[in-house]
Write a structure and sequence with these properties.
globular, nine-stranded mixed beta sheet, alpha/beta
Length: 838
Amino acid sequence: MALTLSQLERHLFKAADILRGKMDASEFKEYIFGMLFLKRCSDVFEQRHEEVIKQQMEAGKTLADASVIAENKLWYKKEGYFWVPPESRYQYLLNNSRQANVGSLLSKALAGIEGENTSLHDVLEHIDFNRKVGQSKISDIKLQQLITHFSLHRLRNEDFEFPDLLGAAYEYLIAEFADSAGKKGGEFYTPRSVVRMMVRLLKPTLEHRVYDPCCGSGGMLIAAKEYIDEHGEDGRKASLFGQEYNGTVWSIAKMNMLLHGINNADLQNDDTLSDPQHVENGELIRFDRILTNPPFSINWGNTEKDSSGNAAWQPKFAAERFPYGQVPLGSKKADLMFLQHMLAVTSDGGMVATVLPHGVLFRGGEEKNIRAGIIEDDLLEAVIGIAPDLFYGTSIPACILVLRQRVQDGANRVSGKPAERQNKVLFINADRECFEGRAQSFLLPEHIEKIASTFDDLQEVEGFSTLVDIETLRENDYNLNIRRYVDNSPPPEPHDVRAHLIGGIPRTEVQAHAELFSAHGLNPLDLLQPFASGDAEQDTRYLDFRPELQQRTDLKPAIENNAGLLAKEDAIRKAFESWWQEHGERITALSGELDNTTSLVELRSELLNSFSQSLESIGLLDPFQVRGIVAGFWYASKYEFLGLMARGSSGVMDAWRTSILAAMEDKASKHNPLEHKLVKFLLGDFVTGLAELEQQRAELDSKIKAATAVKSADDEDEEDADNADEENIIDEEQIKQWRAELRNVRKKLKTQKENFDSHLNKAVDGLDEQQAGTLLLTILHNDMQAIIERHIATQRRSIVAIFENWWDKYRTTLTEIEQKRDTAAAQLQEFLEGLGYV
């Protein structure tokens, strides 16, 4: 069976579990990455080794001679292979892992691969298995476990569910380590939703040189490569450049590239601010697209002096890179120095997208002067405020600046922006565009779509975006505080004094939600009616709840069963079904199209465009939500599509089966494999039977515990037991019967679970390719339908909340409250008089 993504992710996470304890994720992550890379290199080497031996034997050589020839390093110059010396091969490590000082064995293995392959120079030397963490180093037994664990799966491409499986799993592991590392996670990982949005803003292509001056683990460059793939070009051929200060993180980035099949990325290890490494013929190399998330507010150099009394901090190419000035030495304000470096290495007309803290937008002093220079040269294209809590390690709000370098026009440097953007800056206040998770917020596809579309189309949306000319920025002393130009604060909750006094809902409040009601097909007058107080002039301004709505709880069913609302929801469902009937089978047409990379690109484009056209016209969901649905579906199903291309529909079923069975064996798994979508379709009756047995077990267990608890209490107080009612006397025979039934139920449960594998295997093996394709389409259809239903339900809940809010505000009037107060006071007075107190 092919190794699946979830199976490999679980395998890597278990490897990390071996080292958890004395070390946190920030300390042991390099060992897991090193072991993974070592195993991958060894397995791919063995594959090539076997191929050479086979070729030589087919040419007439003996096995012994062919084996000697296969040791020639020249055979491994082919792209994607490394020469692995004997002491670095995994079988050698496995055979010798029971000796003392296993750390030295592994460190030498990594050094052997690095020493024999120039492209790996300095990449693996940072990983020292003998390094002390605290007062001790990793024990031999732990390292032996690690070696044994990584031997469980072979890591050749032919073993994978789809070709880039290893790269996807590596990205998963980096994200898991960032999550575990907390604050330190932000040093090497930017959440993928933010990265995707930034890449979408710059739209890199194969002809662009893409650069990240603070590349961390390489996620932005990988995302640029994937964007290029998704738009019909071979991202592995992209010109990717990066620099990272932390040596361990840099080595992780190098391995990340190699495991994604990117062999030509130019990643350097040094301090970008002091010593930029991408230099050619004594000049800084220029780049077309720069994507980065530099460390927030680190020190700008230091205040030390050299022996001559001059500043020790002497960054290279300073005059060229920092033309707008420098912040004070030693100050924690290096953000705009990073930005100036980016601009200095941006080619004419090239673009920059960078994450920065909000402080750079409005702080005074040298930072204001730097901002002024950048603005006056018309380099700043957009300022995008994003939600807090999106990044690891900081909850402070951040922004994304988009800039475009000037171009040469004869003897002059002029704005490189398109004409309609020149001398203007687009402000987008998207700090409310996020999904708030328990520990961290993240961007959903519809948020990315809204931000990116607003930028692309230069839209001005009230409370979200506005276009500000440079003259206005000049008048505001170059202050770029986003809320100064786009205030998205929600309006204060309206309160109508008259409505509070005598009742009624102001028509103005109803009208304020007219767009939402209309989109969802609800006529508010189906639930409201003209208010009747006797004052004709006043009554025209107010509405009241219809008489059939007697309680607050009546609102929700009345809205959910409203004919107009149901008709609108039915319309979008029918539009989806019609769209799926027309385009769904294009998905299974990907089967076997692995070598035809354009097929996936064409499908993505077709789904995005046709879905938008089909559902936007209904008007229930806004265009950003509609495009977000199909984008979210695409990202969620991406690996199924790749598996389909590599192994067909049956291959996808097989991959799901493998993941389910692996999860059944993993007692620590967070996910219940019985809830997998494939199980629900193929073994619905089986799962229902298990659920019924589980319920019987729980009920019997509860009865026995309750009965034995009563018996224990009776034994402690015999006198009470003698006086107990007959119906409360514990029947020993009944308890015995329950216990016998419980044993029988548990036995059945155990047998059923043990038979699960055979049931699933029989069901999956019974599917031919056509049946597998039909089932795959059904499951994907339901996945997408579920996304649509979530959007519909969310919008419907917001409508219910509006009416419930009106009920809470205006249903009970001040007059009614006073009447109840007076009635209660009169009752109290009467009660006191009856007692003779007054």
